[in-house]
C-alpha cells in the first residue's frame, strides 16, 4: 500500500494555491476506526484499480479516533477522509472543518440512500454532510426453540406481545426471558426513533442549538417504567444480573431467550443458536405507527484544507465504496448493512436467499427503510456521548432501587440540558 508523503499533511488551509496536474497520481490518507481485515481489503482493492492510492490507517476506537482528529485539525495536519461515528456528527458539523458532500459533490444520486442512513447525516436543509458507510441498527433476537416450548410460534412485533412472551417464559421456569444492558442507544434512542417521538426539542436538535431534553416525559417515561417493572419481576435482566455478565453473551449461551441488540451480535448468535435464531424488527407499542430506526456505525467525511487533486482522489474512493459490489463485500465480511437501495437489490439478485452471510441484513434494512418523520431522522445534540453516560448512570440508579425512574430521568434531563447549554455557548457563532 502506498504511503502518504508526510509533507502533504503539513499543508494547512492557507496552503491550497497549488493544484496538481490532472494526469499526476496522488495519494491520500483515510483514518478509520474499524479494526478488521475488511477495510484493508477494500483499500487494497481500490488501489489495485486506480492510478491513485489511499492509505487507510486505523486510529483506534471511535472516541480515540475523534480525539486524534481534533488534535490533527488544530495543527492543520488532518487527513482528507475520516470516518466518524454516528453520535459524533454534531460535533464535526459545528467544527466547520468538513466539506458538506451533497453541496460540493453533486453528480451522485444521494436519494438512493435509505431513509434511516440518509436522515442521520443530513443537515437542517436535508442535504448529506457525509457519506453513510458502515451501518447497523437495532433488531430483536429470539430463540425460537425457547419460545416454541411455551407455545409461541410468532416472533413478537409489539411490546405487548413481547410482555406476553416474557410472562409465559417466566411461568414455565425460564430464568431470563429477556435481556439488555440498559444502554441509551438501545432503550432510549432506538425506542424513540421507531415510535417517531423526540428525545429533545427542536426535533432532536436539528432545528437549533437551543434544544432541551424531553427524556422525562411521554413514551420514554412509559417505556423506562415498564423496563423497571419487568426487571423487578424477573422478566428482564441487565448485564450484571446475568450469569454471563453481558447481555449478548447471556443470549448466545441460551441463558436468555430474547434481546434487542445491534446487528453486530448476529454472527455470534447465529453460530451459537443455528436454526433456532430468529431476528426481526424491534417491537413497537400498540397504537403507534412504525418509523425508521436510527443508523449506528459511522460515515465518511471529507475534511477541508486540502488540494483539489487530493479531494478528487477522495471522491474517487467515495465512489468506489458506494458501488453495490463494494458494499456487498463489506456486508459479507463484517455484517454491516448496505446503505443504498441499489446495493441491497444487488445483494438480493446475486446471493442465495439462504446464504447465512447475508441473513442478518433483511430485518435491519427493513427497519432502517421504514417511513421517516422529523424525530426519526437522527440526533443533533452537542456532547451527546457524554449524555449517553449520564443517562445510563442515572437510570442504573433507578434499576438498583436507589431512586425512582422518574427522578432518574429528571436528573438526566437536568444534567443533559447543562451539556447542551455548554455546547451552545461554544458553537453559537457557527449556527
- Outline the low-pLDDT stretches: 1-22
Structural class: alpha/beta
How would the global form be characterised?
Answer: globular
* Tally of structural domains: 2
Q: Order of helices and strands, N to C? A: HEHEHEHHHEEHHEHHHEHEHEEHHHHHH
Mean of pLDDT:
90
The description of the largest β-sheet is: 5 strands, mixed
The CATH architecture designation of the largest domain is 3-Layer(aba) Sandwich
Q: Fraction of residues in helices?
A: 40-55%
CA-CA gap between termini: 40 Å
Residues in β-strands, percent: 5-15%
Taking all Cα atoms into account, the compactness measure Rg is 22 Å
CATH superfamily of the largest domain: Periplasmic binding protein-like II
| Strand order across the largest sheet | 2-1-3-10-4
- If you consult CATH, what is the topology of the largest domain? D-Maltodextrin-Binding Protein, domain 2
For the record, what CATH class of the largest domain applies?
Alpha Beta
The number of helices is 19
Secondary structure: number of strands: 10
Organism: Vibrio comitans NBRC 102076
GO biological process, one term: maltose transport
Signal peptide: 1-22
Family: Belongs to the bacterial solute-binding protein 1 family.
SSE layout and pairings?
Layout: H1 6-9, E1 27-32, H2 37-49, E2 53-58, H3 62-74, E3 81-85, H4 89-95, H5 101-104, H6 115-120, E4 131-136, E5 138-143, H7 144-148, H8 159-171, E6 178-179, H9 184-195, H10 201-205, H11 218-232, E7 236-237, H12 247-252, E8 258-262, H13 266-273, E9 277-281, E10 296-302, H14 308-322, H15 324-334, H16 341-350, H17 361-368, H18 384-399, H19 405-427
Parallel strand pairs: 1-2, 1-3, 6-7, 6-8
Antiparallel strand pairs: 3-10, 4-10, 5-8, 5-9
Helix pairs in contact: 2-15, 9-11, 15-16, 18-19
Amino acid at each position: 500500500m502506498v504511503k502518504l508523503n508526510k509533507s502533504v499533511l503539513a499543508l494547512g488551509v492557507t496552503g491550497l494555491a497549488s493544484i496538481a496536474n490532472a494526469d499526476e497520481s496522488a495519494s491520500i490518507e483515510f483514518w478509520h476506526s474499524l479494526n478488521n481485515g475488511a477495510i484493508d481489503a477494500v483499500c487494497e482493492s481500490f488501489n489495485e484499480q486506480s492510478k491513485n492510492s489511499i492509505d487507510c490507517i486505523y486510529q483506534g476506537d471511535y472516541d480515540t479516533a475523534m480525539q486524534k482528529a481534533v488534535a490533527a485539525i488544530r495543527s492543520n495536519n488532518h487527513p482528507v477522509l475520516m470516518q466518524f461515528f454516528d453520535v459524533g456528527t454534531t460535533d464535526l458539523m459545528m467544527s466547520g472543518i468538513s466539506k458538506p458532500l451533497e453541496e460540493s459533490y453533486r453528480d451522485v444520486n444521494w436519494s438512493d440512500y435509505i431513509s434511516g442512513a440518509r436522515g442521520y447525516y443530513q443537515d437542517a436543509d436535508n442535504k448529506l454532510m457525509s457519506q453513510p458507510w458502515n451501518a447497523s441498527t437495532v433488531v430483536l433476537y429470539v430463540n425460537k426453540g425457547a419460545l416454541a416450548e411455551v407455545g409461541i410460534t410468532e416472533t413478537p412485533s409489539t411490546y405487548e406481545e413481547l410482555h406476553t412472551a416474557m410472562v409465559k417464559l417466566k411461568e414455565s421456569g425460564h430464568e431470563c426471558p429477556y435481556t439488555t444492558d440498559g444502554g441509551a442507544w438501545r432503550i432510549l434512542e432506538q425506542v424513540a426513533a421507531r415510535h417517531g417521538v423526540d428525545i429533545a426539542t427542536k426535533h432532536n436538535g436539528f432545528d437549533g442549538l437551543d434544544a432541551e431534553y424531553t427524556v422525562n416525559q411521554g413514551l420514554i417515561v412509559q417505556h423506562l417504567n415498564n423496563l423497571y417493572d419487568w426487571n423487578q419481576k424477573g422478566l428482564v435482566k441487565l448485564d450484571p444480573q446475568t450469569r454471563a455478565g453481558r447481555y449478548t453473551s447471556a443470549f448466545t449461551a441460551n441463558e436468555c431467550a430474547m434481546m434487542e441488540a445491534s446487528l453486530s451480535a448476529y454472527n455470534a448468535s447465529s453460530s451459537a443458536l443455528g436454526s433456532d435464531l430468529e431476528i426481526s424488527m424491534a417491537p413497537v407499542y400498540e397504537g403507534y405507527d412504525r418509523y425508521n430506526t436510527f443508523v449506528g456505525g459511522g460515515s465518511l467525511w471529507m475534511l477541508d484544507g486540502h488540494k483539489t487533486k487530493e479531494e478528487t482522489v477522495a471522491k474517487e474512493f467515495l465512489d468506489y465504496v458506494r458501488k453495490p459490489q463494494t458494499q456487498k463485500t463489506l456486508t459479507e465480511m463484517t455484517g454491516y448493512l448496505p446503505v443504498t437501495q441499489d446495493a441491497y437489490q444487488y445483494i438480493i439478485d446475486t446471493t442465495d436467499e439462504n446464504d447465512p452471510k447475508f441473513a442478518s441484513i433483511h430485518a435491519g434494512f427493513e427497519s432502517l427503510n421504514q417511513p421517516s418523520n422529523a424525530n426519526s431522522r437522527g440526533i443533533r445534540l452537542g456532547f451527546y456521548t457524554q449524555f449517553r453516560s449520564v443517562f445510563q448512570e442515572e437510570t442504573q440508579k433507578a434499576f438498583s432501587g436507589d431512586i425512582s425512574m422518574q427522578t432518574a430521568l429528571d436528573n438526566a434531563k437536568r444534567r443533559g440540558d447543562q451539556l447542551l447549554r455548554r455546547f451552545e455557548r461554544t458553537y453559537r457563532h457557527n449556527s
